[in-house]
Amino acid sequence: MISILCAFAVLVFGYIFYGRLVTKVFAPDKRKTPAYTKEDGVDFVPMKTGKAFLVQLLNIAGTGPIFGALMGACFGPIVFLWIVFGAILGGGVHDYMSGMISERHDGASIAELSGIYLGKTAKWIMRIFSVLLLLLTGTVFVTSPAALLARLTPDTLSVTFWIVVILIYYVLATLLPIDKIIGKLYPIFGVVLILMAVGIIFGIIKGGYTIPEISLKNLHPEKLPVWPYMFVTVACGAISGFHATQSPMVAKCLKSEKEGRKVFYGAMLTESVIALVWAAGGVAFYGATGGLQNALDNLGQSGVVYDVSTGMLGTIGGILAIVGVVACPITSGDTAFRSARLILAEITKLDQKKIKNRLIITVPLLSVGTVLTQLDFNVLWRYFSWSNQTLAMISLWVATAYLLKTKQNKITSLITALPAVFMSAVSMTYILMAKEGFNLTQTVAYSVGICFAVLLFGVYLYKLKNQKTTEPIHNI
After folding, report:
1. pLDDT tens, residue by residue, 70-122
2. Quick one: three-class SS letters along 378-407?
3. In sequence order, which residues have a C-beta less than 8 Å from that of residue 309 and are 6 or more positions away?
4. Per the count of CB atoms within 10 A, which of 60, 84, 106, 306 is most buried?
């Protein structure tokens, strides 16, 4: 139990001190935000700080910090270290910078920001990459809640039926103004997500479960190497590129730039607390990583969440688990499709204030998502995980380029460059080693991954020395 309490304490200190340093590097000011300068009653809507925080938390979280943390816990308590330091030094920085740089550019997507700071080729690569990732995300978060709903309802209400129901909801959430559905429902489900985590901690203490102390040993039952698999398996909760597609949506609603640390950095570290709880709870409940892995293989992620919740908290836990595992992924899926609509709107230049233009983009988008729901969930998740971390890598390089171009003290760009280098090594090594990638040997993958990261760091050092400072572009 001491290890998990220490982890919580480090996260709190990380928010207070490192979060303040990140904010100082960016330097928010008193300028009017896009929520006011571009207010349209649809996507640009001023939102109170507390509500913006909870909307951001649900946007980035869903069941990501639960499912990913449970699978990551199979590596053993080493996962605690990745969740804590990954979130403070990587994920929080990534989310804050992607949200605040977007805010400085009228709520532009990560794809558009890539074009501004990395060039036109990067912009088109990121446009395609972002939309594909968002489609995968939306689809992943249709199939898992639909499967659980089918198990909990009469046989006549099949998985297909629930997929259709969820997709209809997605159409409404993607089309309607952000404050009509998302702004009203997300704060409620954000509280539920937090209550689930609090309940699991209470269940661990009350039930006398043992949380393993932090160790660097790899305890994965299938002997998967920690590098790079753990760093890809646990994305949400540590660092996730998906967040870079979500932060711009909330950036359109900030009342003040100075709210950014609470909304972006704070939501990321809150997500990491949730991930820590579920990683600890999973291993504690099943007694060992082998038991947890066996449960995941036989019950699936949703089944394990239900098993742990009811086992520790009884009926109340079951209710929270059902609400969380059904509602939370849906609340990530709908904003995934909404973000995809906004990126496609940037490409097509269709004014999204008009419902007709929103329909022109939304209907084909959801149609593709419907087709993707027929693919195997596990395959989708693996590609989603790699795409996620690759997008995180690119987003951090965008933030680094922003700092190099706009700050007099360019050494401050190390705050984003170092996690960018780390994620570059993770992403490249994983796709070379993984079965869904090139399936190369560990030796080759490690060597190429390290060389790739070193090469990018060399380019960064060259830019650090030679990049001239320019004023940031405020309109695109």
Report:
1. 999 999 999 999 999 999 999 999 999 999 999 999 999 999 999 999 998 88
2. HHHHHHHHHHHHHHHHHHHHHHHHHHHHHC
3. 196, 199, 200, 317, 318, 320, 321
4. 60
H helices then E strands: how many in the chain? Answer: 20, 0
Q: How far is CA 288 from the centre of its chain?
A: 27
DSSP string, 37-55: HT--SSS-----HHHHHHH
Separation CA 50–CA 245 (nearest Å): 20
CB contact at 8 A, 46 and 255: yes
Quote the pLDDT of residue 476. 39
Q: Which of 170, 188, 171 is nearest to 333 (CA)?
A: 170
Distance, C-alpha 445 to centroid of its chain: 25
Query: What CA–CA distance (Å, rounded) separates 183 from 45?
Result: 10
User: What is the gyration radius of the CA atoms in the chain, in angstroms?
Assistant: 21
- Worst-scoring range by mean pLDDT, 27-36, 167-176, 463-472? 463-472
The pLDDT of residue 314 is 85
* DSSP labels, 289-351: HHHHHHHHHHHHHHHHHHHHHHHHHHHHHHHHHHHHHHHHHHHHHHHHHHHHHHHHHHHHT--
Q: Which two tokens stand for residue 451?
A: 């060389």
Which amino acid, residue 273? V
Reading the block at residue 149, the tokens are: 């709903």
How distant, in Å, are the alpha carbons of 43, 192, 322 from that of 248? 10, 24, 30
CA distance 388 to 67: 15
DSSP per residue over 205-237, as a string? HHHTPPPPPP------TT---HHHHHHHH--TT
Cα 89 from Cα 187, distance rounded (Å): 27
Cis peptide before 329 (omega within 30 of 0): no
pLDDT level of residue 472 (50, 70, 90 thresholds): low
How confident is the model at residue 143, as a pLDDT?
74
Report d(CA 437, CA 140) in Å as an integer. 19
Quick check: 115 and 123 in contact, CB under 8 A? Answer: yes
Please state the length of the chain: 476
Give the mean model confidence (pLDDT) for residues 453-473.
85
Residue 395 is encoded by which pair of tokens?
A: 């987003």
Helical H segments across 110-176, by residue range: 110-118, 120-152, 159-175
pTM: predicted TM-score of the whole model, two decimal places: 0.90
CA distance 336 to 224: 30
Task: Single out the residue of 103, 93, 398, 32 nearest to residue 268, CA to CA.
Answer: 93
Closest CA to 33 of 59, 52, 55: 52
